[in-house]
Amino acid sequence: MMDTAAARATRALPDIPRDNDGPVFREPWEAQAFAMALALHQRGLFTWSEWAATLAGEIKRAQAAGDPDTGETYYRHWLAALERLIADKGVTTSETLHRYRDAWDHAADRTPHGMPIQLRPEDFEAVT
């Protein structure tokens, strides 16, 4: 494995799903969430120690709520940790994250299967 940002992240986060070439992803959004965390780390928003502690907290919360910890939900916890950190660091608010999530859900509902999802102003207006 080359010494890339992804390789360094994989070494810093030993529980990340991986193979001999580095991190592995089941869905494109998982790779995108991974890339967002890498980019924010590289910009100095958080250290890998902060990231690992936040991710561990999200996993513990999910397990306490009944997550079976089979590995299939790892990147859902990753995304929750990313959202928590950017809200805690003041990059955005939890309310803004929820507003965009709701607008995204609305956009996904109106988009035919297989077509790209595009956010439109009316997706935000549908959010109450």
Automatic annotation (TrEMBL):
SUPFAM superfamilies, alphabetized? Electron transport accessory proteins (SSF50090)
Annotated Nitrile hydratase beta subunit-like N-terminal domain ranges read 16-103
What is the protein's given name?
Nitrile hydratase accessory protein
Organism of this sequence: Bradyrhizobium canariense
